[in-house]
Each structure stands twice: as C-alpha cells, then as structure tokens.
Amino acid sequence: MLTSVDTDLMRVLSDPLRLQIVTLLARETLCSTHLIEETGAKQTNLSNHLRVLREAGVVETEPCGRYTYYKLRPDVIAQLAGRFADLAESARTAADNKRACP
Predict the structure, then answer these.
(1) Looking at 40-44, 50-54, 90-94, which range is the least confident one?
(2) Three-state SS sequence of the chain
(3) CA dist., res. 12 & res. 48, Å (int)
C-alpha cells in the first residue's frame, strides 16, 4: 500500500525538470553549475527544484569549496520502487479475483 509519504515523493518526482535532475544524479554527483549546463535551466529555477528534492530527502548536498555538490539518495528511490514492486506482485496474485456485482 502506498503511504502519503510515497504519494508526496511521487508528486516531487513527477515534475519533468526534477525527474531530469534525478536521472542525471543517478549517473554521477554534480554541482549546480553542471546541472545548469545539462538541463539548460536558469539558476533560480534549478535552485528551487533542488530545494524541493532536498526537502523531500531525494538528494543530499556535499559542500566543496564555493560549490555545492548534489548526489542522489538511492535508498529513497529503492524504497519507492519497492512499493511499486509490491503493488505489481499484489496485482499479479489478484488477477483472478473478481468481486461479484450485487
């Protein structure tokens, strides 16, 4: 069963730019300068999306001099994926269950 935390996380990841950021961070740890280059987003827009991802616990920061690096928290993504895997398994086992109409 999906929880409200799961649905909040799905809402966070449903934004195309945030999903692009997560996809890029799944490949490597990047600073905001790299993310601006890769996404073409404006600095303020990117910062807002990174804040949302940070507050949702999807990414964490790592200060490095005057730059801040961002990395994906794979455990959060794996937990959400596990919930979907559970739903898929439940659907497989319930495929022949049909409630009779009154």
Answers:
(1) 90-94
(2) CCCHHHHHHHHHHCCHHHHHHHHHHHHCCEEHHHHHHHHCCCHHHHHHHHHHHHHCCCEEEEEECCEEEEEECHHHHHHHHHHHHHHHHHHHHCCCCCCCCC
(3) 12
Amino acid at 11: R
Q: Read off φ and ψ for residue 58, nearest 5 degrees.
A: -80, -35
Q: In what order do the strands lie in the sheet with 59-64?
A: 30-31, 67-72, 59-64
Tokens of 54: 């940070």
The first and second tokens of residue 46, run together, are 């990117």
Alpha-carbon 22 to chain mean position: 6
| Residue of higher predicted confidence among 36 and 8 | 36
For 3-29, the pLDDT digits (tens) are 766 788 889 999 999 999 999 999 999
Given a contact cutoff of 8 angstroms between Cβ atoms, the answer to whether 9 and 80 are in contact is yes
